[in-house]
Amino acid sequence: MEQSESINELSASLAKAQLEIKNPAKNATNPFLKNRYADLGSCLNSIRAVAAVNGLAFVQSVEMLGDSVSVSSQISHSSGQWIRQTAKTIVQNGGKNLMQDVGSMSTYLKRYQAQSMWAISGDDDTDAQEITTGGIDERKAAHIDALIVSTNSNKTAFLQLYKVKDIKELSEDSYSKALKQLQQKKAKQVK
After folding, report:
1. Which end of the chain is more exposed for a tag (fewer CB within 10 A), N or C?
2. Against a cut of 0.90, is the pTM above it?
């Protein structure tokens, strides 16, 4: 996380805002896990009014940098003080609809950054149900998860097909195969 030279005024306003901010409404359903979650709009709606009253603004930007998509989120205070975090993920080659992949991945990153920076929760804690070791990294797991959602695939069936309990347990070889299959499915849906 990056920040301006001083954040004392921002921190005081953020503390006041966080007393009033409520967790966002869980207004969407994950078709694979069948759990409810707050989509990006719900997350942003839970913070906007309270942030503004406290002299705070929240801005998110998306950039394509070579083969990756980058999302930067910044909380700014009326004093000019700010804090920022950036996350990026690689957009895999071979996708038939690059812009849909970028949109899915950037929305996913924006939602999680908003929740992280404002200390809100819009998801059930499904990660705690199964702790995994080995397998693919978080970035690749997030990419596969975003593709599963965007193609309306059955996550339970996907996990059974690859004989894993969590996407992060996929081997690199299985990740490559799954990526190709999901991208092909997405391309067929676009036609």
Report:
1. C
2. no
CA distance 134 to 165: 13
SS3 category, 183: helix
Q: In this structure, are residues 27 and 123 in contact, taking their beta carbons and an 8 Å threshold?
A: no
CA dist., res. 89 & res. 63, Å (int): 11
For residue 77, give the amino acid letter. Answer: H
**Residues in CB range of 93: below 8 A, 6 or more apart:** 67
Ranges of each domain in the chain: 2-190
Are β-strands 36-37 and 56-65 bridged in parallel, bridged antiparallel, or unpaired? Answer: unpaired
Residues near 179 by beta carbon (within 8 Å), at least 6 away in sequence: 92, 94, 143, 144, 147
Q: Confidence class of residue 131 from pLDDT cuts 50, 70 and 90?
A: very low
Torsion angle in degrees (nearest 10) through CA of 59, 114, 24, 147: 110
Residue of 112, 114, 119, 160 lying closest to 139 (CA atoms): 112
CB half-sphere exposure, 91, CA atoms < 13 A? 22
**Beta carbons of 184 and 150 less than 8 angstroms apart:** no
